[in-house]
Write a structure and sequence with these properties.
There is one protein chain. The protein is mainly alpha-helical. Helix content is 55%, strand content 10%. It contains nine helices and seven strands, in the order H-H-E-E-E-H-H-H-E-E-E-E-H-H-H-H. The strands form three sheets. A three-stranded antiparallel beta sheet has the order 3-5-6, with helices on one face. The chain has a two-stranded antiparallel ribbon with strand order 1-2. The radius of gyration is 18 Å and the shape is globular. It starts with a helix and ends in a 7-residue tail after the last helix. The relative contact order is 0.15.
Protein backbone atom coordinates (compact mmCIF):
# COMPACT_ATOMS: atom_id res chain seq x y z
CA UNK A 1 0.00 0.00 0.00
CA UNK A 2 1.08 3.58 -0.68
CA UNK A 3 1.39 5.79 2.37
CA UNK A 4 -0.50 9.05 2.59
CA UNK A 5 1.42 12.08 1.34
CA UNK A 6 1.64 13.69 4.78
CA UNK A 7 3.34 10.62 6.22
CA UNK A 8 5.71 10.41 3.26
CA UNK A 9 6.60 14.08 3.72
CA UNK A 10 7.28 13.53 7.44
CA UNK A 11 9.57 10.58 6.73
CA UNK A 12 11.43 12.48 4.02
CA UNK A 13 11.95 15.34 6.44
CA UNK A 14 13.42 12.96 9.01
CA UNK A 15 15.75 11.47 6.41
CA UNK A 16 16.81 14.82 4.95
CA UNK A 17 17.94 16.05 8.38
CA UNK A 18 19.63 12.79 9.36
CA UNK A 19 23.37 12.41 9.85
CA UNK A 20 23.50 10.23 6.72
CA UNK A 21 22.12 13.03 4.52
CA UNK A 22 24.04 15.82 6.21
CA UNK A 23 27.30 13.90 5.78
CA UNK A 24 26.60 13.16 2.12
CA UNK A 25 26.30 9.38 2.50
CA UNK A 26 22.61 9.50 1.63
CA UNK A 27 21.04 11.73 -1.02
CA UNK A 28 17.37 12.32 -1.79
CA UNK A 29 15.23 15.09 -3.21
CA UNK A 30 14.75 17.85 -0.64
CA UNK A 31 11.13 17.80 0.63
CA UNK A 32 9.59 21.28 0.50
CA UNK A 33 5.95 21.04 1.52
CA UNK A 34 2.83 18.90 1.48
CA UNK A 35 -0.54 20.34 0.43
CA UNK A 36 -3.25 18.03 1.79
CA UNK A 37 -6.05 19.87 -0.03
CA UNK A 38 -4.65 18.75 -3.39
CA UNK A 39 -2.75 15.73 -2.04
CA UNK A 40 0.53 16.98 -3.49
CA UNK A 41 4.02 16.60 -2.06
CA UNK A 42 6.46 19.23 -3.30
CA UNK A 43 10.16 18.46 -3.46
CA UNK A 44 13.23 20.00 -5.02
CA UNK A 45 13.96 18.52 -8.43
CA UNK A 46 17.14 16.57 -9.10
CA UNK A 47 19.01 16.83 -12.42
CA UNK A 48 19.98 13.56 -14.05
CA UNK A 49 18.44 10.21 -14.94
CA UNK A 50 17.59 6.95 -13.23
CA UNK A 51 20.13 4.16 -13.05
CA UNK A 52 17.72 2.10 -15.14
CA UNK A 53 18.39 4.42 -18.09
CA UNK A 54 22.14 3.72 -18.01
CA UNK A 55 23.45 0.89 -20.14
CA UNK A 56 24.53 -2.03 -17.97
CA UNK A 57 27.35 -2.80 -20.43
CA UNK A 58 28.87 0.63 -19.80
CA UNK A 59 31.94 0.41 -17.53
CA UNK A 60 30.66 3.41 -15.56
CA UNK A 61 27.54 1.45 -14.62
CA UNK A 62 29.36 -0.75 -12.10
CA UNK A 63 30.85 2.32 -10.43
CA UNK A 64 27.39 3.87 -10.19
CA UNK A 65 26.07 0.59 -8.81
CA UNK A 66 28.68 0.75 -6.05
CA UNK A 67 27.54 4.27 -5.19
CA UNK A 68 23.94 3.07 -5.16
CA UNK A 69 24.87 0.30 -2.72
CA UNK A 70 26.48 2.87 -0.42
CA UNK A 71 23.32 4.98 -0.51
CA UNK A 72 21.19 1.98 0.38
CA UNK A 73 23.46 1.00 3.26
CA UNK A 74 23.21 4.57 4.58
CA UNK A 75 19.40 4.43 4.39
CA UNK A 76 19.30 1.09 6.19
CA UNK A 77 21.43 2.53 9.00
CA UNK A 78 19.24 5.62 9.46
CA UNK A 79 16.46 4.99 11.99
CA UNK A 80 13.22 6.94 11.54
CA UNK A 81 9.72 6.55 12.92
CA UNK A 82 7.83 4.16 10.69
CA UNK A 83 4.48 2.47 11.30
CA UNK A 84 4.66 -0.15 8.56
CA UNK A 85 6.77 -3.29 9.13
CA UNK A 86 7.51 -5.98 6.54
CA UNK A 87 8.85 -9.47 7.20
CA UNK A 88 9.23 -12.97 5.82
CA UNK A 89 5.56 -13.69 6.49
CA UNK A 90 4.65 -11.28 3.67
CA UNK A 91 6.73 -13.32 1.21
CA UNK A 92 5.23 -16.61 2.38
CA UNK A 93 1.71 -15.24 1.92
CA UNK A 94 2.56 -14.25 -1.66
CA UNK A 95 3.83 -17.79 -2.35
CA UNK A 96 0.29 -19.14 -1.95
CA UNK A 97 -1.08 -16.64 -4.44
CA UNK A 98 1.64 -17.33 -7.01
CA UNK A 99 1.11 -21.09 -6.69
CA UNK A 100 -2.61 -20.71 -7.28
CA UNK A 101 -2.20 -18.47 -10.33
CA UNK A 102 0.51 -20.62 -11.91
CA UNK A 103 -1.78 -23.64 -11.57
CA UNK A 104 -4.35 -21.77 -13.66
CA UNK A 105 -2.05 -20.16 -16.22
CA UNK A 106 0.80 -22.67 -16.57
CA UNK A 107 -0.31 -25.95 -14.93
CA UNK A 108 2.68 -27.77 -16.45
CA UNK A 109 4.93 -25.74 -14.12
CA UNK A 110 2.95 -26.46 -10.94
CA UNK A 111 4.99 -29.48 -9.88
CA UNK A 112 8.39 -27.78 -10.12
CA UNK A 113 7.05 -24.64 -8.42
CA UNK A 114 5.46 -26.63 -5.61
CA UNK A 115 8.73 -28.46 -4.96
CA UNK A 116 10.63 -25.17 -4.83
CA UNK A 117 8.12 -23.54 -2.50
CA UNK A 118 8.22 -26.52 -0.15
CA UNK A 119 11.98 -26.05 0.25
CA UNK A 120 11.73 -22.28 0.64
CA UNK A 121 9.04 -22.60 3.31
CA UNK A 122 11.10 -25.18 5.18
CA UNK A 123 14.22 -23.00 5.06
CA UNK A 124 12.26 -19.94 6.20
CA UNK A 125 11.79 -21.57 9.60
CA UNK A 126 15.59 -21.58 10.05
CA UNK A 127 15.98 -17.81 9.75
CA UNK A 128 16.59 -16.24 13.14
CA UNK A 129 14.95 -13.02 14.28
CA UNK A 130 16.18 -10.40 11.79
CA UNK A 131 17.59 -6.99 12.46
CA UNK A 132 15.26 -4.10 11.73
CA UNK A 133 16.29 -1.28 9.41
CA UNK A 134 14.72 1.56 7.45
CA UNK A 135 13.84 0.11 4.04
CA UNK A 136 13.02 1.92 0.81
CA UNK A 137 10.14 -0.47 0.22
CA UNK A 138 10.16 -0.46 -3.59
CA UNK A 139 13.79 -0.81 -4.60
CA UNK A 140 14.82 -1.24 -8.24
CA UNK A 141 17.05 0.54 -10.74
CA UNK A 142 14.41 3.15 -11.59
CA UNK A 143 14.42 4.38 -7.99
CA UNK A 144 18.17 5.01 -7.95
CA UNK A 145 18.68 8.44 -9.53
CA UNK A 146 22.08 9.43 -10.90
CA UNK A 147 22.87 13.10 -10.46
CA UNK A 148 26.46 13.96 -11.27
CA UNK A 149 28.62 11.33 -9.61
CA UNK A 150 26.12 10.77 -6.82
CA UNK A 151 23.25 8.30 -6.67
CA UNK A 152 20.11 9.46 -4.89
CA UNK A 153 17.12 7.44 -3.73
CA UNK A 154 13.77 8.60 -5.09
CA UNK A 155 10.10 7.62 -4.77
CA UNK A 156 10.07 7.16 -1.01
CA UNK A 157 6.32 6.56 -0.74
CA UNK A 158 6.77 3.01 0.56
CA UNK A 159 9.45 3.50 3.22
CA UNK A 160 9.00 0.88 5.93
CA UNK A 161 10.88 -1.04 8.61
CA UNK A 162 12.19 -4.56 8.18
CA UNK A 163 15.11 -6.89 7.63
CA UNK A 164 17.61 -5.36 5.16
CA UNK A 165 18.08 -8.84 3.67
CA UNK A 166 14.51 -8.61 2.37
CA UNK A 167 15.40 -5.50 0.38
CA UNK A 168 18.77 -6.77 -0.82
CA UNK A 169 17.18 -10.01 -2.03
CA UNK A 170 14.44 -8.09 -3.81
CA UNK A 171 16.89 -5.77 -5.55
CA UNK A 172 19.23 -8.55 -6.69
CA UNK A 173 16.22 -10.49 -7.98
CA UNK A 174 15.22 -7.43 -10.03
CA UNK A 175 18.70 -7.31 -11.59
CA UNK A 176 18.51 -10.95 -12.65
CA UNK A 177 14.97 -10.56 -13.93
CA UNK A 178 15.87 -7.55 -16.08
CA UNK A 179 18.75 -9.38 -17.74
CA UNK A 180 16.53 -12.43 -18.19
CA UNK A 181 13.93 -10.31 -19.97
CA UNK A 182 16.69 -8.89 -22.18
CA UNK A 183 17.89 -12.44 -22.91
CA UNK A 184 21.36 -11.84 -21.54
CA UNK A 185 23.40 -14.58 -19.80
CA UNK A 186 23.07 -14.91 -16.04
CA UNK A 187 26.79 -14.06 -15.75
CA UNK A 188 25.91 -10.41 -16.50
CA UNK A 189 23.50 -10.28 -13.59
CA UNK A 190 25.83 -12.17 -11.27
CA UNK A 191 28.64 -9.69 -11.93
CA UNK A 192 26.34 -6.76 -11.13
CA UNK A 193 24.96 -8.48 -8.05
CA UNK A 194 28.46 -9.25 -6.74
CA UNK A 195 29.54 -5.62 -7.17
CA UNK A 196 26.44 -4.35 -5.39
CA UNK A 197 26.64 -6.84 -2.52
CA UNK A 198 30.35 -6.22 -1.90
CA UNK A 199 29.87 -2.44 -1.90
CA UNK A 200 26.84 -2.70 0.39
CA UNK A 201 28.66 -4.97 2.82
CA UNK A 202 31.65 -2.59 2.92
CA UNK A 203 29.44 0.45 3.54
CA UNK A 204 27.42 -1.39 6.18
CA UNK A 205 30.68 -2.52 7.85
CA UNK A 206 29.44 -6.05 8.39
CA UNK A 207 29.60 -9.30 6.43
CA UNK A 208 26.44 -10.73 4.90
CA UNK A 209 25.26 -14.29 5.31
CA UNK A 210 25.18 -15.28 1.64
CA UNK A 211 23.09 -18.38 2.25
CA UNK A 212 20.32 -16.33 3.83
CA UNK A 213 20.67 -13.73 1.07
CA UNK A 214 20.32 -16.51 -1.52
CA UNK A 215 17.08 -17.53 0.18
CA UNK A 216 15.76 -13.99 -0.07
CA UNK A 217 16.77 -13.72 -3.74
CA UNK A 218 15.02 -17.00 -4.57
CA UNK A 219 11.95 -15.93 -2.59
CA UNK A 220 11.80 -12.51 -4.28
CA UNK A 221 12.09 -14.13 -7.71
CA UNK A 222 8.90 -16.05 -6.94
CA UNK A 223 6.95 -13.62 -4.73
CA UNK A 224 7.70 -10.55 -6.88
CA UNK A 225 9.00 -11.51 -10.34
CA UNK A 226 7.03 -14.69 -10.99
CA UNK A 227 4.01 -12.91 -9.52
CA UNK A 228 4.34 -10.12 -12.09
CA UNK A 229 4.77 -12.64 -14.88
CA UNK A 230 1.29 -13.99 -14.20
CA UNK A 231 -0.50 -10.77 -13.21
CA UNK A 232 0.72 -8.20 -15.72
CA UNK A 233 0.33 -10.53 -18.69
CA UNK A 234 2.52 -8.57 -21.06
CA UNK A 235 3.03 -10.55 -24.23
CA UNK A 236 6.46 -11.85 -23.27
CA UNK A 237 6.10 -12.19 -19.50
CA UNK A 238 4.33 -15.57 -19.11
CA UNK A 239 7.02 -17.12 -21.30
CA UNK A 240 9.64 -16.04 -18.74
CA UNK A 241 7.90 -17.84 -15.90
CA UNK A 242 9.70 -21.15 -16.33
CA UNK A 243 13.08 -19.42 -16.50
CA UNK A 244 12.30 -17.47 -13.32
CA UNK A 245 11.44 -20.69 -11.49
CA UNK A 246 14.63 -22.37 -12.74
CA UNK A 247 16.68 -19.37 -11.61
CA UNK A 248 15.02 -19.34 -8.18
CA UNK A 249 15.81 -23.05 -7.86
CA UNK A 250 19.45 -22.26 -8.57
CA UNK A 251 19.63 -19.79 -5.69
CA UNK A 252 17.71 -22.09 -3.39
CA UNK A 253 20.04 -25.03 -4.04
CA UNK A 254 23.47 -23.57 -4.66
CA UNK A 255 24.48 -23.42 -0.99
CA UNK A 256 23.56 -25.45 2.02
CA UNK A 257 21.28 -23.22 4.05
CA UNK A 258 22.87 -21.91 7.20
CA UNK A 259 20.94 -19.82 9.72
CA UNK A 260 22.57 -17.14 11.86
Amino acid sequence: PIYEGAETFARMQQLSTSDACLSGHLMLAQPLAYQPEIQTLWQLGLPGASLYEHETDDKQFLSLLENAAGSLAALHQTPISCSRIVNVTDLLARFDEVERMVALLKPELSSSLRSLLTRLRSQAAQISAPSTATLHGDLHLKNFFVTGQQVALIDLDNVCAGDPMLELGSFVASLFYRQLAQQKPAEYSQAMADVFIRAYSAAASKPLNRSILDWHIASALIAERAYRCVTRLKSDRPSLLEEVIVLANTFCARKQFIST
